[in-house]
Write a structure and sequence with these properties.
By secondary structure, this protein is mainly β. The chain has strands at residues 2-6, 9-11, 17-24, 33-38, 45-50, 57-59, 67-72, 77-82, 91-99, 102-105, 109-113. The protein starts with a strand and ends with a strand.
């Protein structure tokens, strides 16, 4: 299993970014995919998750209405569209999936929201 994130960077408050996570090594469409983030000195937190078909999504309260998770099962890729970014969204963002009994993480991509 391999998860490779991309798309992070430096953006001004109010700006947008789209993160991507390319997955390989498993039957992508069979599994829930999630985005987590971890800011310095804080615990890793769940940002959003999406079911295998893409029909069900869940979001942390802090990002509802601003972030959208989606997936393209033909491309084995999950996305996180982030709009109206705030300085408190600054964190390392990680792609995640759980394939019993293991949990898999990507290497992360840094998002910095600053003027």
């Amino acid at each position: 299993v391999q998860l490779v994130e991309s798309g992070g960077g430096l953006v001004q408050p109010g700006g947008s970014l789209r993160l991507s996570c390319a997955a390989s090594g498993f039957t992508f469409s069979n599994y829930i995919m999630s985005w987590y983030r971890q800011a310095p000195g804080k615990e890793r937190e769940l940002v959003a998750s999406i079911s295998g078909t893409g029909g069900t999504t869940n979001y942390a309260d802090s990002v509802k209405g601003r972030f959208t998770i989606s997936r393209d099962n033909a491309r084995n890729t999950v996305y996180l569209q982030m709009n109206s970014l705030k300085p408190e969204d600054t964190a390392q963002y990680y792609c995640n999936t759980r394939i019993y009994p293991s949990i898999y993480w990507g290497q992360g991509t840094q998002v910095t929201v600053s003027s």
